[in-house]
Amino acid sequence: MVRVATGHDANRYVFDVLIRFCGSYLDQGYAEWSLPKREAGIYRSFLALFGSGSAFGDAWMSGLQSELRERQRSGVSAEASILRSLDELGIAEEDREEYVIRTLLSLRGWAGMVWEMENAAAWVVKPAPPGSLVGYLAVQLLLEQQAVAHIARQSFGSGGSIGELLASVRTEGHEDASRSAERHAYQIFRVGQALGWSASALSELSAEQWSALVSEVEDFDEIARRRTMHEAFERGYRVHALDAFANHARSISDSRSDERPSHPSFQIVCCIDDREESFRRHLEEIDPTCETFGAAGFFAVAIQYRGATDGFYKPLCPAVIEPDHYVEEHVGYSFEGVHRARSDLRSRLGRAQYYFHTRSRTFFGGIATGIVGSLATVPLVSRVVFPHLTARVRRRFGHLLQPPITQLHLHRHEDPPGPDGGHVGFVRDEMAEVVTRLLQDIGLTATADFSRLVIICGHGSSSLNNPHESAYCCGACAGKRGGPNARAFAEMANDFRVRVLVAERGIEIPEETVFIGAYHNTCDDSVVYFDLDRLPSSHRDAFEDTRRHVEEARRRNAHERCRRFGSAALDLDLEGALRHVEARSQDLAQARPEYNHATNALCLVGRRAWSRGLFLDRRAFLTSYDPAQDDDQSSVLLRILSAAIPVCAGISLEYYFSCVDFVTYGSGNKLPHNLISMLGVMEGASSDLRTGLYQQMVEIHEPLRLLFVIETTPDVMLSIMDRNEDIGRLCRGGWI
Asked: 606 - beta bridge partners?
């Protein structure tokens, strides 16, 4: 209203200061100086910083210093400051709730990050103290109060006040929003033309019929029309998908091919991720005797994990789970000396890089940087012109800094679990629970069904110059890589002491079955294996055969992906396609290293026989579940859906809204994005934090709500919706 009445936007003043202050306050190590009284909260820190004043401040903030000093002297709390600002701004009591909501949503990215840092920030180095969001609101209203007062002085002279400005705004009046009779007539005229109504037929309508007709036409407005068309669009995909499954079910029933492969050559458990659909499909085409499964990519190993080169623990599990267990990666004791030397070298290089970065901002440092800075163009150009070759060189030298052979600290000897000493890891009973749970979830419970080799394959994504990289990694691992989970599960399942406990729970794993942890990089389609030094010699031939099939599958997978990349030649062979996706992941100028979950539309929960042999075009999340092995309470299905529905629905909705409006709900264009505070990205030098998906990630996506196809009965599904509030809300609310 102020902007409409005066032509001045108060937010233009407020946002400039608030964004810079929040970026400094939430900083995780990028800034060289810390804000004063940061530990006391946003509000107190703002009072201390801006209350000291400056002779070179902006004119609109001329009264801010005295205001802040007065609040410091009187000890006004953040809550009291909010109420005082609302009074000064003339916000009526009945309007305050909506006004506060609109204020917080005006910079929804920064407000959301403050809330996240305050409530769920175990993964950050410098979390925000409790009450930070209230302090943020107090600061924003303080600045808004100053901005409105400045606009009042501009509009009414030096004596202008906020009250005088608000009074003038209220007397401006507004255009009547009610629709005119002429507009009603025009709408009826257009409908009549479309449906072939005659004037005589309309003239015979009674007053009640006219009222009903006008009401119906008004209700079917632009939003209603879009909703109807969108529901028709979703229905088209749903009908085609369900027809395909029905026909496929009839064909496998006639041929009796719905049975699982007997004596599979190998088995692989992948994440339910839609990008693994094509990887599993190619494996089954290359080796029809293999068997593939899909499970949430943390593989029932909910952990806080710290790698050998990590500074702190990070959660590897769905966001709806709070992990209690901690796992560390250690370097083998025989390599402790090598690891210490490499760790010291990494520290020295890190300090040198930090000092170069900070000293380049000084006067003489800036001169030196300008002189020698041209040398930085050599690696810059090579990363753009020769990305594949440069990546190989960097990896070769990177091995000199990485820790040598490592192992997981997985066994715990003391209770309870924790991040220190003997509290890290799992006790054997807990390991047995993890192994039993995953095997029950995927339906691999009968001794005769196990192959000699079972690969547990986590996944993630790595690409160069990509501040959105976590959006490409495993959703079931909270946007991180699932390799450690796969490695931990394989070690648990290979422990003979754990197998004894698993057998007591009803699943007897054959002695000859060996589990191998692996990691699939969905960006460059590479696959690495863990702890192969523990592989028995009796299984090496079987593993080499399996690895050969996996190598062929990743080449075919890369070839299938290249059809969506405009930079890929149409005549690429399999090897050329693999080199192309490897180069994209290391190309400094590449805005589309991979399309991630784009085009996701479907989630299957059931036996693989439903979909094996179908081309699902990398659009389906595949979750293994055998209802014949579930109990009367469908506890296995409830456990599976408790992770699968929130994770898959969250991914789908993120793409849905970012695709519908990538500017408002997404993060706009990736090209002008800059890192801020080591927490997120802004557009240019100052903007709201962009929290959705950027344009280049969703440009090929069709905004469909995710279609879940679950092998169960309606009664069981309704029971699960009643027992799990999150599932019930997503299903009954029409979010999926």
From this structure: 624
